[in-house]
Amino acid sequence: MIRRNPRGDIPIVHESAFVDPTAILIGQVIVHENVFIGPYAVIRADEVTDNGQMEPIVIGAHSNIQDGVVIHSKAGGLVVIGEHTSIAHRSIIHGPCWIGNHVFIGFNSVVYNATVQDYAVVRHNCVIDSREIPPGVYVPSCWKVNHETDTSQLQPVSNHAQDFSESVARVNLDLVHGYRAIRNEF
User: Fold this and answer.
1) Pick from 7, 64, 161, 176: most CB atoms within 10 A?
2) Cα separation, 180 vs 165, whole angstroms
3) 56-102 pLDDT, tens digit each
4) Which residues does the annotation mark as catalytic?
5) Which residue ranges make up each domain of the chain?
6) pLDDT digits over 83-96, tens only?
7) What is the CATH number of domain 2-185?
8) CA triplet 108, 39, 85: central angle to 5 degrees?
9) Element (H or E) spanning 171, and its range?
10) Shortest CA distance to 177 belongs to which of 99, 85, 64?
11) In 3D, which of 115, 91, 99 has the Cα closest to residue 59?
């Protein structure tokens, strides 16, 4: 469902993207080409600053926003999801946030007021709170990364983890084409 926000902004969705009919996109959301937005995802750009300003939520080309993901931003802060990036099932991305290209955010993870640089892998059930995750690092499942965390302890992404991340992105890109082909059947 595509809806206006109270300010009147309406999402812009590239014609090659697939948005599941159960997903809800509200307001100043920009979805680039070949993006997959899965069932029950909510992407909501509706809050403004004290002076009525708002930055968009941008989903980069060839990325996937999986089932039940919530993307929102406090007081109209910018949220960017880079290209070829996977946001896995039931994750929450709460801006302002910047998530780079070729990033994997695992199931049930929460990223708040943070930056996750290119080629990083954040595994399942993690919390990234007000920190920057360097490029090409691996955050193990169930880690909490905040102002007390020494991010220099994070290891580089292994070939196995990178292959997994890339396979998820490929599968979801195939889903874009498959679901677009049968779009009128549901």
Assistant:
1) 64
2) 23
3) 999 999 999 999 999 999 888 999 999 999 999 999 999 999 999 99
4) 47
5) 2-185
6) 999 999 999 999 99
7) 2.160.10.10
8) 55
9) helix 159-181
10) 64
11) 99
